[in-house]
Structures are given as structure tokens and as C-alpha cells.
């Protein structure tokens, strides 16, 4: 008699995974969560969560962590990629000015390991707690004929809210506005296919366990698994004291593809070389991989995690509140993004 497990799907393992993650998931719930884990659909009390708002606008985003999952799998480190996923999503809706409300995750694997799945979801829950975001649902799929053994995929959807009057980018971005940068922790969640290729070609023996001197004692794997930084608290601090006109989360496509998304038509930007610190892992990939400057800044964030556009006269006040914010450029009247010398 044929059994589902013979086809590669273990229902008992899925049940065990849910048991292991229940406490972490429920730790993200507040009074607005009416139904979460175990329900067919997550239920969220919008009236409670949006109380006091005049014209609330919901902002949503779906994304994944790309092939960073392959690095995590190779190193058998599953406790950080969930935080990567949430932080990436929070930053994306933050660009519109939104704060997070709730999150849903999706994990797909070739073979379901309850401990591995629980570690991933615990990371998702940790990221949600830090951002005051409820994890109200998700899906774990065991798909043995779709994914290679040991491989997994991770994606998520976030929903947040912003007052209509506070939506970003603002329409008053103008030529001469200053561009500040909040630093990244490393690659964040983009550029991993390139990074893995460079590691495979130039560190074939030790791979992710290699410790190039440029990394100051870290292994390549540790540097690549640095958690994608969340900028919610820093942006909130800045918005409380200076007129933030626009934000830009530097993800896939780098400065060249992302900055134009938040600038008015006809405007561009100049980013001044050497005005911030490039993370050692980015330096390593550029040097060992022989990446041209444009390619590096197109594929990687190069240390520019979140860009903040403010009036030039507000720079000092912004840096007083967030000391690590670096002045790295300005908005220009030329509709291109250029790297320039200072």
C-alpha cells in the first residue's frame, strides 16, 4: 500500500516543526492578532491597529533572501536568514514611510527537517519582534522533486501602514538636496550568486571557511551571513527631527537601479567616492573577483544600506541624532546616477 511518506512528504515532520516554532511565533502577537498559527487565515484587527489615524494607507511588499539560502545551507546555519527576510521587508516598506503591521512567511524544502524549519522561523519571529510586527501566518512546503537535496527557499510578505500625508517619497525633492547613507552590515540579501561564484573560483579549497586577512579574522561564510540590517529605528529618529524627503533601500541593482526609483523625473544623483566605509566582504569580492567599479555598485550595496534624502541645511541636525549617517552625495539636475570624486 502506497504512503505519502514514500513520495517524499512527511506529514509528521511538518507537525513536529509547527510544535517547535509555536512559542516563537506567538511571542510576536499583540491584541490586534485575532487568529494566527493553526487558523486557515491570519486575522488582524485593523480598527485597533490603525486607531487614531486620519487617512491610513496600507503598504505591502513580498521578497526573498535569494541564494543566501545556499550559503546558510552549506554552513548549516539556519538561525539568521529569517531575520534577513524580515529586515529586508521592513526596509522596503519603510521607503514608502510605512511602519510594519504583520508578516507572513513561506519556506520550501526538498526534505523537511523540523529543527531546521524551526530555526528559520525562530529567526523570522525574532525579526518581527524587533520591528513590532506580528507573524500571523505562513506556509512550509516539502517539495522533493522541485528542490535539490539540502536546498531551501525562503520568502515573505509584509503589510504596513502610513498616514497618507506622510507617504514617501515627498514631491519636494529638489536639486541640491543632501544624500546621507546608513551603513550596511555586508551584502545583506543581494549579490549572493556573484559572491558564491567568486568564492568557488578563488577559494576552492577552504570555501566559506577561508579567513582572508582582509576580513580581520572572520571566515568568508561568517561575513556573508551577516544579518541584513533593519533601519526602522534610525529612520524614525531622523524623521522626528529633520524633514526626510525620500529613502532608498539599496538592494538588487545597487545605486544605479534603486536611486532613480525615488527621485523625481529628470533628476539624478552624485555619490562621492570614499565618503563612507566599504565593508571588508565587499572589498574582498571586488578585489578577488576583479569587478569593475560599475559592476560592483550595480550588483552589491557596497556599504550603502539605506540612503536618506534631506535638505542640505538639515545634515548637521541629522548627524547629531544618528551619528553614523554619512554625507555621501547630492541630488542633481542630470537624470543619471554617477560616482564622482570628492
Automatic annotation (TrEMBL):
Keywords for this protein: ATP-binding, Cytoplasm, Ligase, Nucleotide-binding, Purine biosynthesis
EC number: 6.3.3.1
Compartment annotation: Cytoplasm
Catalytic activity: 2-formamido-N(1)-(5-O-phospho-beta-D-ribosyl)acetamidine + ATP = 5-amino-1-(5-phospho-beta-D-ribosyl)imidazole + ADP + phosphate + H(+)
Domain PurM-like N-terminal, first and last residues per copy: 56-162
EC class of the enzyme, as a word: ligase
Pathway: Purine metabolism; IMP biosynthesis via de novo pathway; 5-amino-1-(5-phospho-D-ribosyl)imidazole from N(2)-formyl-N(1)-(5-phospho-D-ribosyl)glycinamide: step 2/2
Pfam family, one: AIRS_C
GO molecular-function terms, A-Z: ATP binding; phosphoribosylamine-glycine ligase activity; phosphoribosylformylglycinamidine cyclo-ligase activity
Domain PurM-like C-terminal: 175-340
InterPro entries with a match to the protein in the record: PurM-like_C_dom, PurM-like_C_sf, PurM-like_N, PurM-like_N_sf, PurM_cligase
Highest taxon of the lineage: Bacteria
GO biological process, one term: 'de novo' IMP biosynthetic process
Main location: cytoplasm
Any GO CC annotation of this UniProt entry: cytosol
NCBIfam families: purM
Membership in a protein family: Belongs to the AIR synthase family.
Protein name: Phosphoribosylformylglycinamidine cyclo-ligase
Highest classification ranks of the organism: Bacteria, Bacillati, Chloroflexota, Chloroflexia, Chloroflexales
Gene name of the encoded protein: purM
Amino acid at each position: 500500500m502506497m504512503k505519502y511518506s514514500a513520495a517524499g512528504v512527511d506529514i509528521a515532520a511538518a507537525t513536529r516543526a509547527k510544535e517547535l516554532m509555536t512559542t516563537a511565533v506567538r511571542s510576536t502577537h499583540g491584541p490586534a492578532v485575532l487568529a494566527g498559527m493553526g487558523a486557515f487565515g491570519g486575522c488582524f484587527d485593523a480598527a485597533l491597529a490603525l486607531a487614531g489615524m486620519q487617512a491610513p494607507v496600507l503598504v505591502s511588499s513580498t521578497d526573498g533572501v535569494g541564494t543566501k539560502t545556499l550559503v546558510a545551507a552549506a554552513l548549516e546555519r539556519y538561525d539568521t536568514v529569517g531575520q534577513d527576510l524580515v529586515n529586508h521587508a521592513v526596509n522596503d516598506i519603510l521607503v514608502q514611510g510605512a511602519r510594519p503591521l504583520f508578516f507572513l512567511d513561506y519556506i520550501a524544502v526538498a526534505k523537511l527537517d523540523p529543527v531546521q524549519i524551526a530555526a528559520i522561523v525562530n529567526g523570522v519571529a525574532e525579526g518581527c519582534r524587533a520591528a513590532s510586527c506580528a507573524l500571523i501566518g505562513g506556509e512550509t512546503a516539502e517539495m522533493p522533486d522541485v528542490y535539490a537535496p539540502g536546498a531551501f527557499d525562503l520568502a515573505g510578505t509584509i503589510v504596513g501602514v502610513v498616514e497618507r500625508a506622510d507617504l514617501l517619497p515627498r514631491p519636494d525633492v529638489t536639486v541640491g538636496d543632501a544624500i546621507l547613507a546608513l551603513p550596511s552590515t555586508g551584502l545583506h540579501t543581494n549579490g549572493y550568486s556573484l559572491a558564491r561564484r567568486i568564492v568557488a573560483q578563488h577559494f576552492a579549497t577552504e570555501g566559506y571557511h577561508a579567513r582572508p586577512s582582509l576580513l580581520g579574522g572572520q571566515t568568508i561564510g561568517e561575513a556573508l551571513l551577516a544579518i541584513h540590517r533593519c533601519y526602522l529605528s534610525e529612520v524614525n529618529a531622523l524623521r522626528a527631527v529633520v524633514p526626510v524627503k525620500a529613502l532608498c533601500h539599496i538592494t538588487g541593482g545597487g545605486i544605479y537601479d534603486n536611486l532613480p526609483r525615488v527621485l523625481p523625473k529628470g533628476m539624478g544623483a552624485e555619490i562621492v567616492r570614499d565618503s563612507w566605509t566599504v565593508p571588508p566582504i565587499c572589498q574582498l569580492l571586488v578585489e578577488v573577483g576583479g569587478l569593475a567599479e560599475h559592476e560592483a555598485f550595480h550588483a552589491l550595496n557596497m556599504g550603502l544600506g539605506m540612503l536618506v534624502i534631506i535638505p542640505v541645511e538639515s545634515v548637521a541636525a541629522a548627524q547629531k541624532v544618528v551619528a553614523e549617517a554619512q554625507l555621501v552625495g547630492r541630488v542633481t539636475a542630470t537624470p543619471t546616477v554617477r560616482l564622482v570624486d570628492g
